[in-house]
Amino acid sequence: MRYVWTAAGYELLRIIRNKMSVLLLIGLPLLLIFLLGNGLDTSAKQVRTAVFHADQGKLRADMENYLASEAASSHLQIIRAASAKAVQEQVQTGSADYGLVVPEDFSELALEGGDAGLIYYPGKSSIRNLTAKAVLDGYLNELKLHMAVMAVLGPDVPEQPQSGRGEHEGELVDVGTSNSTAKGDFGPLTSLQYYGAAYLIMFLFFSSMGAVFSIMKEKEQWTLYRLGAMPSPLVLVVLGKMAGVMLFAFLQGTIVVAVSRLVFGIQWGGYYGMIALIIALTIVAAVSLAMIITSVARSGKSSETIFTLLIIIMTFLSGGMMPDIGVMKAMEKFTINYWANEGLHFLMSGAPRNAAASVMVLAVIALVCAAAAALRMRKVVSIHE
Predict the structure, then answer these.
(1) Coil, helix or strand at residue 180
(2) For residue 112, what are the contacts with CB-CB under 8 A and spacing of at least 6?
(3) With bands split at pLDDT 50, 70 and 90, how would you rate the model's confidence at 117?
(4) What is the rounded end-to-end Cα distance, in angstroms, of the chain?
């Protein structure tokens, strides 16, 4: 075993010294998780809305009641501001997602049937802007409807019903289209959780394939002859190089999970022992699969191309690139990514017993791949071909 761990140490050191490779394998998945997790986050979260209410007229109380109603508060988190400038600053700095200024003459203009003059300050997220605008426009729509009824039936019409009360509560504030696909696509998970699992598994494959490809490079450059002349069996040296890559991949997975939890706030479920097991099994399956592909490929370059294409296809079929892949969804269970992702999703949802079933399937896949790779290893390390 001394030869194995010595070779593993040298291989791990070789990988770490390649700073660009380390940056890509650790930084790129974190960047993709952040961009896709936030860019495609259409879940029905409360929109932080900075509000400055300067109106002291007849409609002030009614407007305040609307903002406090369930119809509005279920979509908006109201943040009070001291001035219109403060609203604008909060939106610009990101402390608020959206801004609303109710001018001093709001009641007067609204009761006269003219433009109410509400001032909106949109934020950076178009989805949250649409949500906030739809909720706030709901009050104006109810107000205009009441004014129209008064114009037809006269001043004896009952007072305007405050939104959020009564039988048809919130009907005029329909923001369903603003949140079009979130819940149905990601299920109980947030988009950050969904893409966190998907890209963690995807980049474990990219890291793991380096083991066999470094062997093929040495074989093509004839340095494998010198390794074969060493007193230790060549198979042990090769196993050591594979162990070094596996150690780096496991370190990579640990860093991605830790950083995404501490910086992005991704909730991994707290079952870190099972998460580590899923990462380890994925690495074993990935390295073994790379060994099998390399044993039948004509060169290291062709095996790298085939394996990269296979990674992308498995990530796509398992839903790693888009949650709903339609008619191709039936094929996802034939990918390693699916079982690893499903196990992580169950852990994130607080269902470790359900995750155990996925982990068992993943373990069987890893075992089968490892056995097949062991049978093909002689073909890979042979120095006579």
Answers:
(1) coil
(2) none
(3) confident
(4) 27
pTM over the 0.90 mark: no
Q: Is the pLDDT of residue 132 over 50?
A: yes
Which long-range contacts link 364-371 to residues 24+ away (Cβ below 8 Å)? 365/281, 365/285, 365/336, 365/339, 366/281, 366/282, 366/284, 366/285, 366/288, 369/284, 369/285, 369/288, 369/289, 369/292, 370/284, 370/285, 370/288
The fraction of the chain above a pLDDT of 90, given in percent, is 30
Residue 101 burial by CB count (10 A; 0-12/13-18/19+): exposed, middle or buried?
buried
Residue 351 is classified by DSSP as -
Candidate CATH numbers 1.10.10, 3.40.1000, 3.40.1710, 3.10.350; the one for domain 47-180:
3.40.1710
| 300 Cβ contact partners less than 8 Å away, ≥ 6 residues apart | 213, 216, 217, 219, 220, 294
The closest of 300, 310, 287 to 365, measured between CA atoms, is 287
| List of E strands, the chain | 47-53, 76-80, 98-102, 119-121
d(CA 41, CA 29): 17
Q: How many CA atoms lie within 13 A of 148 on its CB side?
A: 6
pLDDT at 37 over 70: yes
pLDDT at 165 over 70: no
* The token pair that represents 112 in the structure block: 């006269």
For tokens 């998780």, the residue is 33
- Domain parsing of the chain, residue ranges: 2-40+185-381, 47-180
The secondary element (H helix, E strand) that includes residue 40 is none
